[in-house]
């Protein structure tokens, strides 16, 4: 009963925190709400008209939704780059940022699941994914493995921070014997969620563009570049607008992780390009379409070359100690990397896998306004969830809200 009272008090205090703030904060939350409502309206049109309201066809059946899903799985997995140094290696410099990273993972996973629902056409078909009720087909289907690892990772990233914050809210230290096993498990689970997602594409024999042994490792490299890059940008915003001051040393350590991952990602990209173009076969047509166009079809050319240019510039700048330690340059490079990998793991990976089609026909894909509206709505939902989680966590860590014990007379 006592713990239930503490939980009720925490919920009440959290609601007070997330519903109060500066004018800037209220404008931010109102803007996200408006974008979410717009997304819901676009989604209602999709529910009424079906997936024909999107730019997807029987030729290109995965588009903007699955592109964002793939990218966000990597963002969620990147939280492990803070969890492992903090909980396992006991690096105190990462301790300030780990709860923020886990909050970002929760928001990313919620967006992942929302994009899957949007891509399936509607929530009415979700029962197919419920074990024992739907057609789960475990363990043969890689999709069922993806469902399990994503929901399992979401559970870990909710329960571990919640336990720590719940203890801190009561003015108590969290017990390592409780959270450490889950933290260690989440390290391996984070790698698993991205590898399983990569295997989901890699196992489709009819899509030679994805039949690449480097797909799984490159997924991880790009994730550990884009995810921590986003974490750095979020920490910069938190430092600017809150009293929760993250040390420069913490940001610079995360920057080193971003740099190494970006370098590995670039090396793997060069390896893939060599494999596709040095000794091309008819299976290289998707890569040719992506990088050079086919039969005058060049819709993805501006996207992929912009992404590669941003990727190269950011990686080169981050490689030099002088630029990496300059916070303004670091933030700029993190932004470039984040956008570049979003393009690369989105349009640059998903769409070319369907082009050209089985009979050599090239049917290009362009997202509709409905798709873009739903996508922006889901991103706004993720930003809203993260804002609420981060603000509550910061207030608890700063001691601004805590459980008030009633005095006994």
Describe this structure in words.
- The protein has 409 residues and is an all-alpha fold.
- It is 70% helix and 0% strand.
- The chain is globular, with a radius of gyration of 22 Å.
- The two termini are 20 Å apart.
- This is Polysulfide reductase NrfD.
- It comes from Polaribacter cellanae.
Features:
409 residues, mainly alpha, 14 helices, Formate dehydrogenase/DMSO reductase fold
CATH architecture call: Up-down Bundle
Could you say what the CATH topology is called?
A: Formate dehydrogenase/DMSO reductase fold
Average predicted local confidence, pLDDT: 87
CATH superfamily: Formate dehydrogenase/DMSO reductase domain
Low-confidence stretches: none
How far apart are the termini? 20 Å
Give the ordered list of helices and strands: HHHHHHHHHHHHHH
Percentage of residues in helical conformation: 55-70%
Radius of gyration: 22 Å
Task: Look at the helices and sheets and give the structural class.
Answer: mainly alpha
Major β-sheet annotation: none
Keywords: Cell membrane, Membrane, Transmembrane, Transmembrane helix
Main location: membrane
Subcellular location: Cell membrane
Family: Belongs to the NrfD family.
């Amino acid at each position: 009963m006592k713990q239930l009272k503490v939980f009720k008090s925490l919920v009440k205090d959290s609601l007070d925190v997330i519903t109060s703030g500066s004018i800037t904060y209220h404008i931010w939350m109102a803007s996200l709400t408006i974008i979410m409502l717009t997304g819901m309206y676009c989604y209602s049109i999709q529910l009424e008209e079906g997936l024909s309201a999107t730019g997807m066809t029987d030729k290109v059946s995965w588009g903007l939704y699955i592109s964002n899903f793939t990218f966000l799985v990597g963002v969620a997995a990147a939280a492990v780059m803070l969890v492992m140094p903090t909980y396992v290696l006991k690096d105190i410099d990462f301790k300030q940022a780990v709860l923020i990273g886990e909050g970002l993972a929760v928001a990313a996973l919620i967006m992942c699941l929302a994009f899957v629902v949007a891509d399936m056409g509607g929530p009415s078909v979700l029962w197919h994914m419920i074990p024992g009720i739907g057609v789960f087909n475990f363990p043969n289907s890689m999709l069922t493995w993806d469902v399990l690892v994503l929901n399992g990772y979401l559970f870990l990233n909710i329960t571990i921070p919640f336990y720590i914050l719940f203890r801190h809210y009561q003015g108590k230290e969290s017990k390592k014997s409780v959270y450490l096993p889950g933290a260690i498990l989440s390290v391996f689970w984070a790698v698993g969620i991205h590898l399983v997602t990569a295997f989901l594409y890699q196992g489709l024999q009819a899509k030679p563009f994805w039949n690449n042994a480097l797909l799984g490792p490159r997924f991880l490299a790009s994730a550990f570049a884009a995810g921590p890059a986003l974490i750095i940008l979020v920490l910069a915003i938190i430092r600017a607008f809150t009293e929760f001051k993250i040390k420069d040393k913490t940001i610079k350590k995360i920057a080193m992780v971003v740099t190494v991952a970006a370098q590995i990602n670039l090396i793997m990209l060069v390896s893939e390009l060599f494999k596709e173009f040095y000794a091309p076969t008819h299976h290289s047509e998707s890569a040719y379409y992506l990088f050079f166009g086919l039969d005058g079809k060049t819709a993805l050319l501006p996207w992929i070359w912009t992404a590669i240019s941003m990727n190269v510039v950011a990686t080169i700048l981050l490689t030099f100690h002088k630029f990496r330690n300059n916070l303004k340059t670091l933030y700029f490079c993190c932004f470039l990397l984040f956008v570049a990998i979003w393009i690369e793991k989105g349009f640059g990976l998903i769409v070319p896998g369907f082009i050209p089609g089985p009979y050599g026909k090239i049917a290009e894909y362009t997202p509709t306004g409905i798709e873009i509206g739903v996508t922006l709505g889901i991103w706004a939902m993720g930003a809203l969830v993260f804002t609420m989680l981060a603000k509550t966590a910061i207030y608890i860590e700063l001691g601004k809200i805590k459980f008030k014990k009633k005095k006994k007379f």
